[in-house]
Fold:
Amino acid sequence: MEASRTLAEVLERDARAAAVTVAERLFAELRDAIVRGDLAPGDKLVEPELARQFGVSRGPLREALQRLEARRLVERAPHVGARVAALSFERLIDLYHAREAVEGMACRLATERCSEGELDALEALLDAHAALEDVRDGTGYFQKEGDLDFHYRIARASRNALVTQLLCDDLYQLMRLYRYKFSAYRGRTPRALAEHRAIVAAMRERDADFAELLMRRHIAGARRNVEAARRRQRKAAGTEPSMHQEE
Amino acid sequence: MEASRTLAEVLERDARAAAVTVAERLFAELRDAIVRGDLAPGDKLVEPELARQFGVSRGPLREALQRLEARRLVERAPHVGARVAALSFERLIDLYHAREAVEGMACRLATERCSEGELDALEALLDAHAALEDVRDGTGYFQKEGDLDFHYRIARASRNALVTQLLCDDLYQLMRLYRYKFSAYRGRTPRALAEHRAIVAAMRERDADFAELLMRRHIAGARRNVEAARRRQRKAAGTEPSMHQEE
DNA sequence: CCGCGTCGGATTGTCGACAATCGCCGTGCG
DNA sequence: CGCACGGCGATTGTCGACAATCCGACGCGG
Structure:
């Protein structure tokens, strides 16, 4: 039963299993710890401490930190050190704009290039999502990764290595980080599923323009949801620039 | 006289001057060497050799190599080593598709957000380009960086840190690498300038939809130029998958 | 009482050396 | 003659230690 495990988790497991080097394993461990929230945004990452904690030297650890910096999950400054990336509404909205552009293109390319079998698999994935939603309706844990699974597949179907890498390696990890900290998509689950179905329908008709348009509207809708949440929070808490609730 | 020096060169110089650490300096040096063609695509980058050549240890060198890998300028494999990124038509076309998406969005955001002064500066830049083109018409060296200067400014005017970083730090360095190795934009210079002017005109009217559309068509046109070159080469040389002419 | 300079501890950046792994080349066998 | 196997050199990955830099506390002067 592959459907019981989300694609994102499978990719995670693969990345950790294929860690032929200590630095790769550390990178995967730290990435998961950050996305999972085990390391909170803004936390200082002290090299000797982490090295002792993982039982390795500082060399591979620094390599892992640098890879996390490239993925924008940690921020580093020379002679100052590394911190888990700070979260803010502005950055999340920036991220949505970037996703709207790149995923729109991925959807266009996928529409032009993917096989009928891939479209069948996409529809099967959405059927599975719908079934899960019937069981545990509302904001189930499933939605967290299930939505990303759909976008993962679109990205990979684009047959564009650069676009796929941008989405799957860079932007999606950031999305997951924000999702764990900030669930601003309340009640959007059924609507998102319908939008996914419309996208696949356009792809099935090989209407690349329309498929890209639908994908962009899908992501722009999610972004507007976040923008509305930001306005609500600003009105509620006066001038609160950050979105850290805890501590 | 700031106009005599392209924005790209200024950014280069800044990056090297602000190198407070050995790893940063090495990164800038190697990046320039790769873009300049001093290190040819596919060249093996042996750590002890480079370290001795630059008079540093392998530690900072490895860090620089990793940063180059994140920028997709070198490819690394565990226990195998690093090589300068291989060039191919397929990757270049992938790059154009990614640029079309991200730069289109950058142009849209810039249209919505930039000031009138920034638009004035953009038009002044295009005037300078036109003047230079009158003097040294045809395919001047100027065009190489001048075109990117325009796109640099659009990216920065988007006020989106992620989009700006994607374009200026990641994709543009790759474009420069391909431009040095593969000048497939013969005779496009006057046309590109006209398209740039049309983009700024749409931005001046604050027509974000049209500005994005024009930017996307501008980049798509350049991409089709490359695709035509690929077809020509395929017809000429039978089945030549790579675009390395030398060696 | 507050601001500023200085000092000390801690952390990061860099270095050289050791161990693990890969590619190559010669050899032997089918 | 072709191919698989094993040894060997070279390269990469990892480690611990040293030096440079930054952050905080303390003391001093205004």
The two ends of chain B are 41 Å apart (CA to CA).
